[in-house]
Each structure stands twice: as C-alpha cells, then as structure tokens.
C-alpha cells in the first residue's frame, strides 16, 4: 500500500548481506537500498553487473496474448493451447533459479521437448572436455585459501565476473605461512579494475596472442619437463615461457583459471583441452588445479538440475520417452530451426532472441523486455533474488546459494507459471 507520508520523510529500506544471483560468483555481501516504490540501488560495490541488474525494476505489466493485455489465467490457457498442438517444442533460455528449472524440465518432459540454456555455448566448451578427458578442478574457496600462483589464461575473466579478484584473489591465503600469492596473465591483459584489486600482489603480464592461448598452454606444458628447452608460442618469448614453467614447478598450489565464453577462436573447446592438459602435466611436479569460470543466469545450476533429473546434461531431447543427449544437434540455436513452438525463459535479463517466422513463441521474461517480434504469449515474471526467494548455483558447482526476496511488484515466479501451464495441458490418456 502506498504510504501517505511525504516522500522526503520516507527512509529507504536497507537490505544487508544480499546474495547476488547474476554471474555465478556468489557474492553474498551486498548492501541494497530500496526506495519506495520498489526501486533498488546497490550501495556496497561498483560491480557494474549487480548495479545494473538490481536497479532494473520497472512496474509489473500484464501478460499479453497476440499483443493484447490479458489476465494471467488467460495467458496460461493460451500457452497451453499452443504447446498441446506443438510437434517439435523447444524449452530454452532457462535463465531461472533451481525451482524454475525443475518446473521447466517437468514441462519439457511432458511435452517431449528439447531443453537448453541460452548461455550453454561457454558451458559446453568446458563440458566437452570434461566428457572427453576428465579434469582436475578446484573451487573458489580453494583459490582464496590455498592458491599461491594463479595463472589466468586468456581475456581477463573480470569482464564477465567483475568481483573475481576482489573477493577471491586479493585476500591473503588462509592456509599458508607466511601467506603469499602472485598472479600471471597469459595471453590477456588485466582490466584497470583488476589491477586496482590486485594492487598489493605481484602481477606478471605475458600479453601473447589471445587467439593462441592453447599454443601458449601447450608450450608451457612442454617446458615443465625441461624449462631449458622451452619454445616460444603465441608471441611469448621462449625465456618467458621457461620462467613461467619454472615458477609453476615451484608453486605449492597453482590454479589455472579461464572463462571459456570469453574465448574468441573457433573450436574453443580445444583451447580448454590444452589448459586441462597443462593442469594435468603440472601435477607431475606440484599441486595444480583448473578453475573453469561460468555461471551467468544460473547456467551451472540449471545444468545441475538437468543432470540430476535425467542423468545427462542440457542439450537433451525428451521426445521418445528416453532422454537423448546430443550437444551438437540439441543446441538451442540449431534446434530452433526445426522447432515449431518455443518456450523461452529469461528471468535474469530482459532479453528474448528473434525467432524465425512460423515459430510460435511463449516468452517468460521480466517486465519491460524489448522483443524484436511480439511473441504469441508474453508472461512477465519476477527476477529470482529480487521478486522472490531463489536457489542459484555458484560457478564452481559446489555451492547452492539462497537468495531472498527484496521487493514485491506482484510478479509471479517462473516455477508457478510453468506449473500452471503444465496443469492446463490436456490430460494424457491413461495407459492400460
Ligand atoms: S561479481 Fe557477480 S555475483 Fe558478485 S556482485 Fe557482481 S554480478 Fe553479482
């Protein structure tokens, strides 16, 4: 209810220790001020992602069917009618919390749909290698508490995960006496904010060709055996490769970090594979682990839900009664060419891609989402961690964080809407 008090007498509500659900880094220390009515502002950090996402809280708008505002129940019925007639449905986007993912996968199972996340390209550059060769990976907590040498491969991951260095690298390791740490950037330059965050830590930059990170990793792996025979690679001199190999051999706990979605080169999974091999080879000399960074829009959490639910990751078809996983064929952007109906879920950002004419789109996205084409059905939904409590997974896959509700704009959560759509589908004929 609107307050009768003059606006200048209404004090902002201060939310402390707020969990940020947006990039997978799991920051749980935000201070967010709420100015009536329902305007949020992050006060405790300059993280551009958090500032932009928390501040984007337009008023709730009504659902639409064919561009006409309708009550939620009518939009749900219209969505169910579209999906009941679909022959090749796609349930994708999947930018949602764990509850939303569970509901989306249940609906997809009922429909026999293909499921994928909007940001699974970066995820699959890593998963492809995990599936092929396995890997030695670590967690953000291990990075903060044990790592004495951090090797950052490729573009600065802080462009995607802005507080990575501030939260997980700048604090001194807890389990080292005396605590020490240094950071090396290989084929990438630290951003200005990263240099600031690392101001008390020795930093070495080897700015080689970012399109040849894999070559640099392979040269470094070869030099580990005998640094005196090191070769140059990716524009980095042999002497620099040799010195880094020597430093890696002497590390007590080295971590090799990368953000695969920032890799530009084609077949970026082969770059990841060479980094994974570097980690494996370094373990012949010292303790070393990889840190694949991902996790925007809870892509890691949604993949976890899919894996525990069906035994296979995303990019899976649920048609035919058995989950069929094919990371090439069932990538959403490829399958969209043959799908006749698309359920697109995007609760963390106001984005819905353009689909080709002839495809019927049901979009569940935040209020105010600008769309290239008006979808058949648009249902505005709340953002996890702003409009409703939510679980999201951290990038390192080992921690599920509980984000709480901050404001009430009267927007439904995705799980509730998807369950209502599933309930409105025609009942399946009983089998004898
Ligand atoms: S770094 Fe990521 S998790 Fe942390 S505040 Fe920024 S967007 Fe949120």
Question: Could you characterize what this model shows?
Answer:
The protein is of the alpha/beta class and 432 residues long. It folds into three domains: 10-55, no CATH class; 64-119 and 297-424, Rossmann fold; 123-294, Dimethylsulfoxide Reductase, domain 2 (3-Layer(aba) Sandwich). The chain has 13 helices and 21 strands. The chain has helices spanning 48-55, 72-84, 98-111, 120-133, 140-146, 164-168, 192-197, 213-225, 238-250, 268-282, 299-310, 332-335, 414-424; strands at residues 13-18, 30-35, 39-42, 64-65, 68-69, 89-95, 114-115, 149-153, 182-186, 203-206, 253-258, 287-292, 316-317, 324-325, 341-346, 351-352, 360-365, 370-371, 377-380, 390-393, 400-403. A nine-stranded mixed beta sheet has the order 5-4-19-17-15-6-7-13-14, with helices on one face. A five-stranded parallel beta sheet has the order 10-9-8-11-12, sandwiched between helices. The radius of gyration is 24 Å and the shape is globular. The mean pLDDT is 94. It binds iron/sulfur cluster. Residues 20, 22-23, 25-27, 45, 47, 49-50, 161-163 line the site of iron/sulfur cluster.
């Amino acid at each position: 209810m609107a307050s009768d008090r003059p606006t200048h007498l209404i004090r902002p509500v201060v939310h402390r220790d707020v969990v940020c659900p947006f990039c997978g880094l799991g920051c749980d220390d935000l201070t967010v001020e709420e100015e009536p009515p329902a305007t949020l502002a992050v006060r405790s950090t300059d993280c551009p992602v958090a500032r932009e996402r928390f501040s984007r809280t337009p008023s709730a708008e009504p659902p639409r069917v064919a561009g006409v505002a309708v009550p939620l129940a009518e939009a749900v019925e219209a969505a169910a009618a579209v999906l009941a007639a679909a022959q090749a449905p796609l349930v994708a986007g999947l930018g949602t919390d764990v509850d939303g993912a569970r509901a989306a996968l249940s609906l997809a199972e009922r429909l026999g749909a293909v499921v994928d996340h909007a940001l699974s390209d970066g995820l699959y550059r890593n998963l492809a290698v995990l599936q092929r060769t396995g890997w030695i990976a670590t967690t953000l907590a291990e990075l903060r508490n044990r790592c004495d040498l951090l090797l950052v491969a490729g573009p600065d991951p802080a462009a995607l995960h802005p507080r990575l260095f501030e939260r997980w690298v700048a604090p001194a390791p807890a389990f080292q006496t005396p605590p020490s740490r240094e950071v090396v950037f290989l084929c990438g330059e630290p951003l200005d904010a990263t240099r600031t965050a690392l101001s008390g830590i020795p930093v070495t930059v080897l700015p080689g060709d970012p399109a040849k990170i894999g070559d640099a990793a392979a040269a470094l792996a070869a030099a580990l055996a005998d640094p005196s025979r090191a070769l140059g690679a990716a524009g980095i001199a042999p002497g620099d490769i040799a010195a880094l190999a020597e430093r890696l051999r002497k590390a007590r706990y080295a971590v090799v970090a990368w953000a695969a979605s920032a890799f530009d080169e084609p077949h970026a999974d082969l770059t990841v594979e060479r980094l994974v091999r570097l980690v494996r080879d370094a373990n012949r000399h010292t303790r070393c682990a990889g840190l694949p960074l991902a996790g925007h829009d809870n892509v890691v959490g949604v993949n976890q839900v899919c894996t525990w639910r069906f035994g296979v990751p995303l990019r899976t078809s649920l048609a035919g009664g058995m989950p069929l996983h094919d990371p090439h064929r069932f990538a959403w952007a490829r399958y969209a060419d043959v799908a006749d109906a698309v359920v697109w879920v995007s609760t963390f950002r106001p984005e819905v891609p353009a689909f080709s004419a002839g495809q019927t789109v049901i979009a569940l996205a935040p209020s105010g989402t600008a769309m290239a084409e008006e979808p058949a059905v648009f249902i505005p939904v709340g953002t996890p961690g702003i409009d409703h409590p939510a679980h999201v997974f951290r990038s390192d896959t080992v921690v599920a964080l509980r984000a709480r509700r901050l404001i009430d704009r009267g927007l439904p959560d995705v799980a509730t809407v998807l369950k209502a759509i599933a309930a409105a589908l025609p009942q399946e004929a009983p089998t004898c």
